[in-house]
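W.,

You were right to be curious about this one. When I first looked at the sequence I had no strong expectations either way, so I just let the prediction run and decided to look at it fresh. Below is the sequence, 169 residues in total, followed by the output.
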Amino acid sequence: MTLRKSIKLLIATLAGTVAMSFASADHHGSKKAEKDLVGVAASAEDFSTLVAAVKAADLVDVLQGDGPYTVFAPTDEAFAALPEGTLEMLLKPENKDKLTAILTYHVVPAKVMAEDVSEGAVATANGAKVDISIEGGTVLVDDAEVIATDILASNGVIHVIDKVILPEA
């Protein structure tokens, strides 16, 4: 088996396990998710900071739109790891543009499932590109590790990352 096939098999296996753990009773076992990206994130335990940031940036309507979108979603722990005061500063109304730029850097305007991931630069919703790389079976988005994949929403998919990724200034 080639390394690429092994990685795809590993990602697919992890994706299935993670997707089942994130599935709610509403769409457990179904192939079509009923909740949009914001609804899926809001119903998960580990995205409260992300949801608060999306609300502060007025991106709820966008992420509830038709899409499709791929969201690289940082966990609450990832936001907590930012330098002290950074999150509080970003959530202030006067920093809405900066927060929007950061959050839209986590969004790809297409649905990209784990099995379709390949290395290279990918355009994000803010116009900048994130670098996708695979190192030893681990998928990285810039320097953030993808720790869960293929969490389905009605308008896209969420891949969980362990760091907040920042666009180059």
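Here's what jumped out at me. Confidence is low (pLDDT under 50) at residues 1-30. And, maybe more interesting for your project: The CA atoms of residues 133 and 140 lie 5 Å apart.

Coffee later to discuss?

I.
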